[in-house]
Design a protein that fits this description.
Radius of gyration: 17 Å
Shape: globular
CATH architecture: 3-Layer(aba) Sandwich
Number of domains: 1
Structural class: alpha/beta
CATH topology: Arginase, Chain A
């Protein structure tokens, strides 16, 4: 059986939000030992470096200027994701803020639908008309489903990249009122922290995978703010009451068991807010579990 190859692609984007620092996320994850961890699991690595992202201070500061820059970055991300899939590699994207998922998920679905497991404290389902902040990283899911700025919806190819039935969300606990209503009619399967508290991560994850059983490939988009900030303090938009480290690891392990993992994003690590790179180290361990590390 040929050794699987992972293509590691950094996307140091901090243009989708107001909080600075997540552009250093790719470096923090690499510094925490990502490559050696994945090599120890038997993978070949293709380290593709970082994609170009304009320095935030070089832009005017106007939201339209940021929108154009996010569009350009996500177009490059889309092309990188599609090329990795074409080359038979598993693209692993290191963020950066969660706006990059517009490009990653768009790219990996360029040939066929992919089941998406979105692990996040937030829904990221705002659109320009309902977003309280106007931050683009909170619009990624809506854009992927065809709602919002045309510049984001049409990245890579025209129109929506997913339907609601292609996505499940796990760990949700912080929704704006407008996106709450939008998600209810979107067709996305949403598992909140209450669902996890009442039913447990194992039951929820297996039900989520059953919901996506028609897909032969899975994409995991892991926002590190899905974890409780007491465990993972170094994130762009912390929200209390999140996943424990062990819950997150169990989620990754059960997904790995399917053998369907085809691509992934790890996003929103902010080393400025972290303690001795703890959040990035935790991310590396979660990635290892996602790619097959087991206790026995």
């Amino acid at each position: 059986m040929p050794t699987k190859k992972i293509r590691i692609i950094g996307v140091p984007i901090d243009l989708g939000q107001s909080q600075r620092g997540v552009d250093m996320g790719p470096s923090a994850i690499r510094y925490a030992g990502l490559s050696s961890r994945l090599k120890s699991l038997g993978y070949q690595l293709h380290e593709a470096g970082n994609l170009y992202v304009p320095v935030r201070d070089s832009l005017s500061g106007e939201s339209a200027d940021f929108l154009g820059a996010v569009q350009q970055v996500c177009q490059a991300v889309y092309e990188s994701a599609a090329q990795a899939v074409t080359d038979g590699e598993i693209p692993l994207f290191l963020g950066g803020d969660h706006s990059l998922a517009i490009g990653t998920i768009g790219g990996v679905t360029s040939r066929e639908p992919v089941g998406v497991i979105w692990v996040d404290a937030h829904g990221d389902a705002n659109s320009p008309g309902i977003s309280p902040s106007g931050n683009i990283h909170g619009m990624s899911v809506a854009a992927l489903l065809g709602e919002g700025f045309p510049e984001l919806i049409n990245i890579g190819r025209p129109g929506a990249k997913l339907s609601g039935k292609d996505m499940v969300m796990i760990g949700i606990r912080d929704l704006d009122s407008g996106e709450r209503q939008w998600l209810k009619q979107s067709g996305v399967k949403v598992y909140t922290m209450r669902d996890l508290d009442e039913r447990g991560m194992g039951a929820v994850t297996r039900e989520a995978l059953e919901h996506l059983k028609g897909h032969s490939r899975l994409h995991v988009s892991l926002d590190m703010d899905s974890l409780d900030p007491n465990s993972a303090p170094g994130v762009g938009t912390p929200s209390p009451g999140g996943l424990s480290y062990r819950e997150a690891q169990l989620l990754m392990e059960i997904i790995a068991d399917t053998g369907k993992l085809a691509s992934a994003d790890i996003v929103e690590i902010n080393p400025i807010l972290d303690h001795e790179n703890r959040t990035a180290k935790m991310a590396v361990e979660l990635v290892a579990s996602l790619f097959g590390k087991s206790i026995l």
